[in-house]
Design brief:
nine-stranded mixed β-sheet; about 475 residues; alpha/beta; 2 domains; 20 strands; six-stranded antiparallel β-sheet; Aminopeptidase i, Domain 2; binds manganese (II) ion
């Protein structure tokens, strides 16, 4: 054997090699990748808001035999291994549970994702008229680059509670025959001053006003005729008055369906994939779980994009209370200590997205530690920014455990970080669950154009996420 070959063998055995997940698939698996992504696109189309996504998750779960927590409390049903339960938090967040063989106090296998996505929320008095144009005022939600939201077709999704307390669901702009809405931008010919501004100032928050109408109501006696005409249409079609906006939650989102991206159809382009890609993949995974050793939990929370605050967020006690109810139904006598043990013995994958390496912007990522689309599920040891500030730094012991689960189950995975040191950063719900004493590591799918109106995911990563999450639940 010559010296060169020895060197190659040594290199093969010692050096880490990234795998392109596509290259690991046989034809049969490739077929499954494309099939499951058809379902994924449908999931994205059906849930463009946290409310719609929650509704869809509960609908699918019920079909698979999940019963509501209220029902098992009311009927005093004792949870037994294999039982499937869902808990609905104000129609905006959901918990799915499959009771395991082991006692709850031994801990749960939890995957947590979020259902909210950056968007423009309507203000409580949004409608106004200026020079015979009717517009809607908005307040953006989450981390948006404001300039991305002008001159693209927008849809209005929301819920109105009218004065009688009736709940009215409204979706305008998704059906092919629906009208859509737009936020205008300045013509380049007159944009000298605008173009000299920074990208964060060129389009302002108060400038994100949505064009909604331009036909005046036919009556010379009144002012604001266009606004009145819009109100009349809203009343006729949806039964809404101007005051009803004060008790409404309207979200302005990009109109249209998720699409295949690339001539090889290898990617999915669509709105709200942060973090519905992890919501979908963890949902698919838990739906396949029948009789796990440890109780399997899928958390789908709201308000992650604004810091996980509020009663539908991860910071609310909702999930802890659900566990308390389960302990109460399962044990002879209720004990707070059992709840604490159930929480602290749990292990968690905080399933969220991060930015994959983008050849258009190579400078913000360290190529050796960046995640890449198409190279599988991404584990992230720590998030945070500027010296790991605010991060959940997962233990090596725990990461090793997950590494083994993924390797044993042929899951293509990669290690990633949020970006170059001191370039910025972010966080997920990981630290909140870690506060209970749980083992938590960030583990999700990387995207291109994160937080843009249309984000891009690799279909093979969607598939690997489902495979990895399922292996985690079954371990
Ligand atoms: Mn996210
Ligand atoms: Mn986000």
């Amino acid at each position: 054997m010559n010296k060169e070959l020895k060197g190659k063998e040594l290199q093969d055995s010692l050096t880490y090699k990234w795998r392109n997940a596509w290259e690991t698939l046989n034809d049969e698996e490739k077929e499954i990748v494309f099939q499951v992504n058809e379902e994924y696109k449908e999931f994205l189309d059906k849930g463009k808001t946290e409310r719609e996504s929650s509704r869809e998750i509960i609908r699918i779960a019920k079909e698979k035999g999940y019963i509501s927590l209220e029902e098992i409390i009311e009927k005093k049903i004792k949870p037994v291994p294999g039982m499937k339960i869902y808990a609905n938090n104000r129609d905006k967040a959901v918990v799915l549970i499959v009771i395991g063989r082991e006692k709850l106090e031994k801990g749960m296998n939890i995957i947590g994702s979020h259902l909210d996505a950056p968007r423009l929320d309507l203000k409580q008095f949004p409608l106004y008229e200026e020079e015979s144009l009717a517009l809607l005022k908005t307040h953006y939600y989450g981390g948006v680059k404001k300039y991305q939201w002008v001159t693209l077709p927008l849809a209005l999704h929301g819920v109105v509670i009218n004065k009688n307390g009736d709940k009215i669901d409204v979706v305008i702009g998704e059906d092919e025959n629906d009208p859509v809405f737009f936020i205008t931008d300045l013509l380049p010919h007159l944009a000298k001053d605008q173009m000299a501004k920074t990208m964060s100032e060129g389009i302002t928050g108060e400038g994100l006003n949505v064009l909604i109408g331009s036909i005046p109501f036919n009556d010379d006696e009144i002012k604001e005729k266009v606004k009145l005409n819009v109100l009349k249409i809203l009343k006729d079609k949806y039964g809404i008055t101007e005051e009803d906006f004060t008790t409404a939650e309207f979200e302005v989102v990009p109109a249209g369906k998720a699409r295949d991206v690339g001539i090889d159809r290898s990617m999915v382009g669509g709105y709200g994939q942060d973090d519905r890609v992890c919501a979908f993949t963890s949902l698919k995974a838990i739906l396949d779980v029948e009789m796990p050793n440890k109780t399997a939990v899928a958390l789908f929370v709201d308000k992650e994009e604004i810091g996980s605050v509020g009663n539908t967020s991860m910071e609310s006690r909702f999930f802890e209370n659900v566990v308390s109810e389960l302990v109460n139904l399962t044990e002879e006598s209720y004990s707070e200590l059992t709840v604490k043990r159930a929480m602290s013995n749990s292990q968690v994958l905080s399933a969220d997205t991060l930015g994959g390496f983008d050849p258009n912007y190579p400078d913000v990522l360290d190529k050796k530690n960046a995640p890449y689309i198409g190279k599988g599920l991404v584990m992230v040891k720590y998030t945070g920014s500027r010296g790991k500030g605010g991060c959940n730094d997962a233990n090596s012991e725990y990461i090793a455990k997950i590494r083994k689960i993924f390797n044993d189950n042929n899951v293509v995975w990669q290690m990633g970080e949020l970006g170059k040191v001191d370039q910025g950063g972010g966080g997920t719900i990981a630290y909140i669950l870690a506060n209970y004493g749980m083992d938590v590591v960030d583990c999700g799918v990387c995207l291109l154009s994160v937080h843009a109106p249309y984000e891009i995911a690799s279909k093979v990563d969607v598939y690997m996420a489902i495979k990895g999450y399922k292996a985690f639940y079954m371990a």
